[in-house]
Each structure stands twice: as structure tokens, then as C-alpha cells.
């Protein structure tokens, strides 16, 4: 599949962001990398500030931590310098301008977060050192050991907003493309490094460069292809009605979908701002989608009235996201939904394929004028089967949708700064409109249907469409809110139009028909027994495959 140029443009910055656990963070910048896995895209977080604003309590900075909970967000810890000569190994760096409100890098087995704020620093009464660590500590010349220190660590970034060391900037990136941003040690890519060094953390500059690139690149993604081949119920209900023989019989509406979906997804995210104070001032989400959609909708309706299934979830699966606790997280999921609406006043049996290929759908959110989101849908041949009750006046409609969706749950700075969901919908739909006039007689056939020419007078119109759009649920700072909408494409087609009986030559108004439809038998559900009765034979109006080349575009 094809990746948006945004992710390629970010590669040089990732080179500068690679984390090296062998080097202490004493120079005013520090990074943390997330390796790709079955549940996570690769990502990187970089903070920057004065040399006194950021420090390090990992072994690379000379420290040994004497116990820390890897699942906590805050904790009082004890730690000791590995050498009695603290300046030689770097332990004194933490205290150069007072340890409190300094942001420190943590070893991976200490707290759930890669960085924490020092809320308090003191010398504890407990100066004991576990034997498992003591052998790594260099003793003083007098045989004593370095003094054990204590720190209270937390992620209360707001409490350090007016600290003595100044602001700390924040830059977060993530993508589902393996190898595109280095790793959690010191192995970065090397494209156009100098350019990004000059620009630093300017996302606006990055985005401007992103869309000035005109090349595509075939890539692999850590997101496994999503494949669905399953039958799903959408709407089912039944009630007892009078049959054509006079006996009571069950009448029902059954709508289901045979869904076949193959989707390949690429994701990327970029955010920047400050950790101290906690502010996000730039954000961009990028998604690429190539998909083959094939949803066969089967509708068997023998009740009259109006129905709306509502949005029915058919399938959900998680997509590798990115979580840097208390800093930034994005949790994507792929969902397949369906919806059916109908106004029925005639028995209908219908099967229709909603089959489209979606190529190179590219979403940038929030929308940017530099690079509008884009995509290209192509319809495929559509098998169509349709049978209806003869001898009945009808103005019925059926509309059905199969909607693949990608949802992105996003939080920044532990949800204290912002939390919202971005969605990308691809809506494949079909609509049937029946305009039937009652007719006095019909000729039965041995296959359970009646002959079309003798039994049906009226017209059938089947249309279809596919559209893609993105939006948001909730607000994310001043970047977007519920009103933000990104229309990507919308294609509508006339698939099948045909008139039968007298209507092939002229249209007949409902008021001129010889036999009127019978009144509904009311049911509390809003659906009622059909005027044609239960057990009446249906007239076949269509059973063919409509070539996509025969579709008539409506826009």
C-alpha cells in the first residue's frame, strides 16, 4: 500500500530522537522510544529544556534505585549513587539547581512512565542497601558507602509549571511503519538530518514539507491486514398474521449481511507542545486505507410499516496504538457497522451486493489546506435479486448501509489537557424505491414466483453509493471538536431502473389504480401485517448481475 509523505518527512527527526540507555540525559534533551509490537506502533517522545530542567536517574547517570513499582504512576523511592565520587559519574547533576520540579528520565522497571517530576527530595532515615545491589556500589576510601537519597516522583506536570528551571518542550511521534524511526537504543535512520535539525520541533514546518513531497513509497506496516468473511444479523422481528388460506401464520422481517472485507491500514501521529507547563500546541493524525468491501445485503420482509435498525455493530478489533502514560496515547480500533431503514407496504425479497474497492484513501486530521484528504472508490459488478408481492399498490423504500470505521481514541497529558475520539467512516449504501400499482390478476409459475409481466405494474429504482468522511466526538483543545468534519469523497450511482406492465409506457398515479392496498393491521412495534396477506407468491423483478460499467453516475 501507499504511505502519506508526512511519515517520510519525519524520518530525519526520528534520527535525532533515538534513545540511548548508555548515555545520561544531561544536555537539556532526552528521548524515550516505544518499540513496535502486536499491540503498539513504534513511537518516540522527546523533551527539551535547560540543562537544569531535565536530569536522569538511570544507571547511565550513576544511580541505582533501591526498589520501585513498575506499575505505579507516583511513588517515594530510595536511590544511591554508584560511586562515592558523585561528580565523576554524574549523580550531582540532579541537584545542581535543586532537585524539586526537575524532570527525570526513569529506568524501564521504575513506574509506568518514562519521565517523572521530582516533587520532593530528602535524605531518608533508612540507609540500608539490598545485598543484590551493594556489590555494584563503590565504597569510599574509609570503607563507607555513598549516602542513600530519597525522591517523591509523580506526573503532576501542572505543579511544576512555574518552576525555577523554565519550560520543558515536548515532541511525540508514532507510526505503524517498522524501522522508520530508529529503535529504543541508538539505531536511527539518516535521511535529511540537517534539515530537521535546523527546524527543530516546528510541526508547521514539518507539515509544510510533508505535502510538498510528491512521491509515494510502497511500505510494510505493523498493522496486520484486517480480513472479515462472515454473516451478520442486522434486523429481525416477527408477528402472527392472517395467511392467504385464512389460517394464522408468522410474518417477519429479516435483514442480514454477508460481509467480506479486506483492509490495509497505515497510521501516523505527531504532537508537540510543552510538558512544563502541560500544553499541546500542535497535533496531526494521519491515516492511510486501502480496502476491498463486499457486503451482500439480504432482505426478506413480510411486514408493513417503518423500521430503522439503528447503527448495528457487527465486528470490532483493536489496531496497534501508542501509549506513553500521562503524556500521550492513541488507541485505534477497526469496526464494521451496518444500518437498515425501510418503509414497507409490500412483501419484498431482495439481495444486493455493496461492492467497492477503495484505493489510497488518505486522511489528515485536523484538516489542512496544504494537503486535503483524498481517496478513490471504484464500484464492482453488483449481483441483484428482487421479488415483490404482485397486485398491490406500493410506494416502498429500503435503504441499507455497511460502514467500515476506524476510531482513534486520543488523550494528551494524562487526559488532563485533552481527550477525544476521531473517526474515519467509509459508508457503502444501497437504496430501493418501489412505485407499484395494483393489478387484478397474475399468472403463477412453478418456481414459487409469478410472471413479472402479468403481475406487476410499476417501476423499480435501485441506487447505490460510497462515501468517506471523518469527524470527531468530543473536543481536543482548540484543534477540533464535534463540529469538525472532513468530507473525503462521495460517489452515487443509479444501479438498476426498470418499469413493468402498463408503467413501461406511461406512469400511473396511485389514485388511478383499480385496486387499493388494504389497510395495515397495527402492531405496537410499528410494523403491521401486510395487505397482501401471508403466503402470497412473489413476483420476480430482477435476478442478474449488473455490470459496474453500466452504473450511471449521479454526481
Automatic annotation (TrEMBL):
<keyword id="KW-0732">Signal</keyword>
<feature type="compositionally biased region" description="Polar residues">
    <location>
        <begin position="368"/>
        <end position="379"/>
    </location>
</feature>
<feature type="domain" description="DUF7223">
    <location>
        <begin position="255"/>
        <end position="500"/>
    </location>
</feature>
<feature type="signal peptide">
    <location>
        <begin position="1"/>
        <end position="17"/>
    </location>
</feature>
<dbReference type="InterPro" id="IPR055647">
    <property type="entry name" value="DUF7223"/>
</dbReference>
<feature type="region of interest" description="Disordered">
    <location>
        <begin position="366"/>
        <end position="388"/>
    </location>
</feature>
<protein>
    <recommendedName>
        <fullName>DUF7223 domain-containing protein</fullName>
    </recommendedName>
</protein>
<dbReference type="Pfam" id="PF23865">
    <property type="entry name" value="DUF7223"/>
</dbReference>
Amino acid at each position: 500500500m501507499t504511505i502519506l509523505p508526512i511519515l517520510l518527512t519525519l524520518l530525519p527527526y526520528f534520527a535525532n530522537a533515538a534513545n540511548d540507555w548508555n548515555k545520561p540525559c544531561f544536555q537539556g534533551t532526552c528521548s524515550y522510544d516505544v518499540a513496535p509490537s502486536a499491540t503498539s506502533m513504534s513511537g518516540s517522545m522527546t523533551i527539551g529544556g535547560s540543562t537544569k530542567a531535565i536530569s536522569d536517574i538511570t544507571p547511565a547517570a550513576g544511580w541505582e534505585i533501591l526498589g520501585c513499582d513498575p506499575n505505579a504512576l507516583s511513588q517515594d523511592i530510595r536511590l544511591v549513587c554508584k560511586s562515592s565520587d558523585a561528580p565523576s559519574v554524574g549523580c550531582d547533576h540532579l541537584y545542581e539547581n535543586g532537585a524539586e520540579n526537575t524532570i527525570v528520565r526513569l529506568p524501564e522497571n521504575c513506574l509506568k512512565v518514562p519521565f517523572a517530576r521530582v516533587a520532593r527530595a530528602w535524605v531518608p532515615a533508612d540507609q540500608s542497601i539490598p545485598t543484590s545491589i551493594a556489590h555494584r556500589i563503590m565504597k569510599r576510601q574509609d570503607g563507607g558507602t555513598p549516602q542513600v537519597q530519597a525522591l517523591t516522583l509523580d506526573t503532576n506536570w501542572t505543579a511544576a509549571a512555574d518552576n525555577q528551571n523554565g519550560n520543558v518542550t515536548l515532541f511525540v511521534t508514532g507510526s505503524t511503519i517498522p524501522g522508520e524511526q530508529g529503535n529504543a537504543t541508538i539505531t536511527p535512520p539518516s535521511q535529511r538530518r540537517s534539515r530537521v535539525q535546523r527546524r527543530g520541533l516546528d510541526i508547521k514546518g514539518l507539515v509544510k514539507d510533508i505535502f510538498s513531497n510528491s512521491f509515494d513509497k510502497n511500505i510494510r506496516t505493523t498493522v496486520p491486514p484486517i480480513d472479515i468473511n462472515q454473516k451478520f444479523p442486522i434486523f429481525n422481528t416477527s408477528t402472527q398474521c392472517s395467511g392467504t388460506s385464512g389460517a394464522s401464520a408468522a410474518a417477519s422481517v429479516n435483514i442480514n449481511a454477508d460481509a467480506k472485507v479486506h483492509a490495509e491500514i497505515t497510521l501516523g501521529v505527531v504532537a508537540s507542545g510543552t510538558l512544563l507547563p502541560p500544553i499541546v500546541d500542535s497535533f496531526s493524525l494521519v491515516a492511510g486505507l486501502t480496502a476491498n468491501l463486499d457486503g451482500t445485503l439480504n432482505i426478506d420482509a413480510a411486514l408493513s410499516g417503518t423500521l430503522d435498525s439503528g447503527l448495528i455493530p457487527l465486528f470490532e478489533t483493536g489496531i496497534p496504538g501508542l501509549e506513553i502514560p500521562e503524556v500521550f496515547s492513541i488507541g485505534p480500533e477497526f469496526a464494521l457497522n451496518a444500518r437498515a431503514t425501510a418503509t414497507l407496504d409490500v412483501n419484498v425479497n431482495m439481495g444486493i451486493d455493496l461492492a467497492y474497492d477503495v484505493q489510497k484513501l488518505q486522511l489528515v486530521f485536523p484538516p489542512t489546506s496544504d494537503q486535503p484528504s483524498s481517496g478513490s472508490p471504484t464500484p464492482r459488478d453488483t449481483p441483484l435479486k428482487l421479488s415483490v408481492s404482485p397486485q398491490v399498490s406500493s410506494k416502498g423504500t429500503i435503504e441499507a448501509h455497511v460502514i467500515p470505521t476506524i476510531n482513534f481514541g486520543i488523550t494528551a497529558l494524562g487526559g488532563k489537557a485533552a481527550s477525544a475520539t476521531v473517526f474515519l467512516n467509509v459508508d457503502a449504501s444501497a437504496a430501493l424505491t418501489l412505485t407499484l400499482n395494483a393489478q387484478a390478476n397474475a399468472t403463477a409459475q412453478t418456481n414459487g414466483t409469478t410472471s413479472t409481466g402479468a403481475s406487476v405494474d410499476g417501476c423499480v429504482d435501485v441506487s447505490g453509493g460510497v462515501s468517506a468522511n471523518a469527524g470527531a466526538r468530543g473536543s481536543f483543545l482548540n484543534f477540533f471538536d464535534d463540529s469538525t468534519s472532513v468530507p473525503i469523497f462521495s460517489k452515487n450511482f443509479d444501479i438498476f431502473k426498470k418499469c413493468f406492465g402498463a408503467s413501461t409506457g406511461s406512469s400511473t398515479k396511485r389514485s388511478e389504480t383499480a385496486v387499493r392496498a388494504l389497510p395495515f393491521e397495527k402492531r405496537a412495534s410499528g410494523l403491521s401485517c401486510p395487505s397482501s396477506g401471508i403466503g402470497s407468491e412473489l413476483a420476480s423483478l430482477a435476478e442478474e448481475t449488473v455490470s459496474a460499467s453500466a452504473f450511471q453516475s449521479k454526481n
